[in-house]
Amino acid sequence: MQYPLAAGVADIMPRRHPAQTDRVDRGRGIRRIGAFLVFWIALCAIDAFRPLPASGGESIWMHNSSMVRWVSSGEARWIYYVDPRPGLPVHPDTLLFEGQMIGNRLVGTAYVFSSACPPTPYTVEGIIYFETDVSLYGAVPVVDPDSCDVVDYTWDSHNAALRFHYAITIDRAPVVARGSR
């Protein structure tokens, strides 16, 4: 079946010579590539002047509507809750993650929280492409609420992908890693 509007489209379209159409399409493609390059260069220039979290010190990040503190000392990293979102069974200064940078990878232990059981650790890791947005991935433990034992691991949980978005650097002296002098 032919639709009435589509039937007349060919009649109202201006006819062009094939060589002319080719030139027009090539020109549009070049303009699109040029616009993309200008956009990419501008994005890189903006990113170059954005304050990035230091490899030694502290910064504030957002994570699932909670404010967290990212602590760095050399390659070591710790993440603590500052202002947990309502309903989360944690208090400020609760450890959410501890690990280390290995090249551009962040590897370590995250914790899943429950009101019935103590924090349960699980392994997470992620590749750092942009230092202002970090995602860590890991199979989340399924905890028996009666015994607090880990009965399984699942990727089907919002805790399997932990996303952090940089907010601001805290101006403090560098942090000394735990257990070192």
How would you describe what is shown here?
The structure is a single chain. By secondary structure, this protein is an alpha+beta fold. The protein folds into two domains: 16-49; 56-170, Lipocalin, CATH 2.40.128. The chain has helices at 4-7, 9-12, 18-49, and strands spanning 56-63, 66-73, 76-83, 95-102, 105-112, 120-127, 133-137, 140-143, 150-154, 161-170. It has an eight-stranded antiparallel beta sheet with strand order 6-5-4-3-2-1-10-7, with no helix packed on it. A two-stranded antiparallel ribbon has the order 8-9. Strand 1 and strand 2 (66-73) form a beta hairpin. The longest helix is centred in the N-terminal third of the chain and has 32 residues, at 18-49.
Note the main attributes of this structure.
10 strands; two-stranded antiparallel sheet; 2 domains; 181 residues; globular; 22% helix
